[in-house]
Amino acid sequence: MPDANDIGDDELLFRHVPGGSQFQNPPDKPVTSENFRLRPGESGLSVSRSSLTTQASLLKRLGDPAKGSRIAACRVGDLRALGYIIVPDPRTDDPGHALILPGDNDLSARTPRKRLANLFRLLESEAVSEVSE
Amino acid sequence: MATPFEQLELVRGAQPNWDGYGADAPRPECVDAAARFLRENPDVRRLSAPYVMPTRVGGVLFAWHDGTRQLEIEVESPERGGFVYLNTETDESAEGEFDLRRASASTPSPLRAIIADFAAAVPV
User: Fold this and answer.
1) Please, are residues B5 and B35 in contact by the beta-carbon 8 Å criterion?
2) B122 — phi, psi (to 5°)?
3) How far B3 CA sits from the closest chain A CA (Å)?
4) Where are the beta strands (DSSP E) in chain B?
5) What span, in angstroms and rounded, lies between the C-alpha atoms of B20 and A114?
6) ipTM score over 0.90, yes or no
7) Distance from CA of B53 to the nearest CA of A (A)
8) Are B94 and B114 in contact (CB under 8 A)?
9) What is the pLDDT of residues B49-108, one digit of tens each?
């Protein structure tokens, strides 16, 4: 079992992207920045650690695969390279829950949000290895 | 494939927490303003059909992608809009906000220049 406080650069972080054409770009297009906007009162973006949370469990908890829910993923090291801070934030329903804190970035501005979105890729089902390469 | 206006109607039906992370439902007045902007703005009408989605704070987002170039225009409220442009190859970027009531007839100049450049590369 990985140490919950030690998040390595090579670990993937998952974020749910709801299914439906009104929520997802076409498959060959990037994930839109809107998935990475902080709402008022949020200090960080909710994600789930691939070492502790499976894609299937995240989809089951937050989405509906039958409606096309997907998982977007990003390497921790790529986020840190842009100045983001990743902190574990385990919850009873998701022990792998973590937060992406803005760190040096201003997520109220659109350009940092866009750059953040471009780090994420929509995964094919359980095709984690494609992103980690 | 749904038209942008059909997509807007799908966006209108999005429920609170549509992303599983507590997102707000789109505000009807924002969807109406987004439809008006898309229908009436002469510069945006030169572009190909955008991808349309709700924002996490109740607005509407239009997105265009052309290889390494990405443009997003957001309707934050019936009065206010914003945009971001990013070229992932050159790292050139621009962002700004504008008065959406005026933008239906006249695009703010930085955005107009980006749209002109985009329209030249993306056939409608």
Assistant:
1) yes
2) -110, 105
3) 11
4) 51-54, 60-66, 69-75, 80-87, 93-99
5) 20
6) no
7) 5
8) yes
9) 999 999 999 999 999 988 889 999 999 999 999 999 999 999 999 999 999 888 766 788
